[in-house]
Amino acid sequence: MNTIQTRVRFISVALQKNNVKLSELTNGKNSGWMYTLNGHHSELGVAEQYLSNNDHIVFHYTDDYTKEEGSDKWQEADKPTVSQDITSTVKDGEASSTITSSAIDKLIESATKNEATSIKLHVVGAENADKISLELPKASLAEIADKTDADLNVVTPAGNVSLDRKTMKAVATAGEGTTIKIVLEKKKATDEQKALLGEDAAITEVTILSGDKQIKRFGENKLKLSLPIPEKLKGKKPGQLYMSDEGKLSKIEGKVVTVDTKSYYQFETNHLSAFVVAEESVIDAAIKAQGEKKQTKRRQNALRKVFKILP
To answer: Taking the CB of residue 55, how many other CB atoms lie within 10 A of it?
Structure first.
């Protein structure tokens, strides 16, 4: 399907009928204008929503947004978050940070008391680092899952990692050391990758380590990643793919979100690898080219067998 690289802009709407205006809060504290995209309320604001061909948009007025379909997700976002800044130590382009078990115990106590749905660990002082890591006790990760109803959100300049309780338990169980280290590393594209994915593509490798083990999968569980969208992609429709260890490219479905005026591509994954944010049309072309190359290789192998040609 061809896509229209159009973004829904904010529209200030006030309906006048019999000299009556309908605007935000006109009919109560929960009233205002909303929109549906293809029959469902989007989790994105209108300024964040991209459109594709044949998308159907309906703006409508509601007296109480909490009664609308999907409102449980919006109300969840209003629940409290407990957070802590963690100062990193930077050396040779790598920012390392650590949080102690006693610090996490205090966060758990606060999260339980305030019924928080998120514990946020904000790594600071790593703005100029290419590789950023956060290390925490494995037992503390398991305790967050056991004692709270909160997700764990690790926020860094290189991207954000969010683990729900099931994923935290899976990671803690898989760990072979006493600590869990979450690492995000910005990778430089090779000339071949630039030719395939474009000059504007951003590559980030995400890993979780425990002892000598690299934890790549969490069973059926998933974690949520939010990777920064490069400034050069502003005004273009971004997409996401991951690169396997063998170099295979696979597209990942996600969405664009805005956090503190910064744009991210957010998606869920049940495995870790190198992830690429690039223009969606370029990603589609790269995957198509990969498929054609694979098909050509298969045809060549078939011909060799038929004509008994040695490689």
So the answer is: 14
C-alpha to C-alpha distances, 62 to 8, 22, 26, 31, nearest whole angstrom:
20, 10, 10, 5
For residues 250-287, one letter each, b for 16 or more C-beta atoms within 10 angstroms of the residue's C-beta and e for the rest, the string is eebebbbbeeeeebbbbbebeebbbbbbbbbebbeebb
180 C-beta neighbours (distance < 10 Å), count: 25
H-helix or E-strand spanning residue 103: helix 101-113
Higher pLDDT, 189 or 185: 185
Alpha helices in 150-217 (DSSP H): 165-174, 191-197
Task: Encode burial over 74-104: b for 16+ CB neighbours within 10 A, e otherwise.
Answer: eeeeeeeebbeebebebeeebbbbbbeeebb
Q: The tokens of 256 are what?
A: 């664009």
pLDDT per residue as tens digits for the range 13-26: 565 666 677 777 77
CB neighbour list of residue 108: distance below 8 Å, 6 or more residues apart? 119, 143, 144, 147, 148
- Single pTM value for the model: 0.72
